């Protein structure tokens, strides 16, 4: 889950690779996967689709026991809001979901009102800020 990812676990990221445009995505799911390389496109074995992944720099060390690297993978499931707007996540979002606009290499990202599917806060309304940002 994204709330369990700490910045020291992703400090060796040098780039995020997006496989699709995230402009219209309210959220993406993120996880730390054990992968055999620092930079190659990872295999994807979940339902749904992979929308992006992180590349690691040369200082990233593999696990001593498995020889794998922990890298972030960004993904969506078939019942997520982007494909099922009136479904289970019409409001709210999965625990591992974060707003892709808040992501950067070595920065874990965060939830926003947009990613949670909620209405704008009173502060946003007072400032005249509307979705989509």
From TrEMBL:
<dbReference type="InterPro" id="IPR046051">
    <property type="entry name" value="DUF6009"/>
</dbReference>
<protein>
    <submittedName>
        <fullName>DUF6009 family protein</fullName>
    </submittedName>
</protein>
<feature type="region of interest" description="Disordered">
    <location>
        <begin position="87"/>
        <end position="133"/>
    </location>
</feature>
<dbReference type="Pfam" id="PF19472">
    <property type="entry name" value="DUF6009"/>
</dbReference>
